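User: Please work through this fold.
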Amino acid sequence: MSSEDKVKVWASIGITKNLGNYESLRLDAGAECYADALDDKDAWAKLWESIDSQIEAKLNEIDLGK
């Protein structure tokens, strides 16, 4: 399959974290990749795993900064 036959898949996720004292923080992360088909489950799984790990890393960074 040539690169012209690939489809771009894109996903994003957002989370709002309560910081207390009526404050919150909104985090958004997104990514895109190319797959053989729009329903390529492996491509979607890797895409979501990548986004989830970035959100978790940023949340951990924020929690450590307290």
User: Anything to note?
Assistant: The chain has one domain: 3-64. Residues 3-64 form one domain. The CA atoms of residues 10 and 31 lie 6 Å apart.
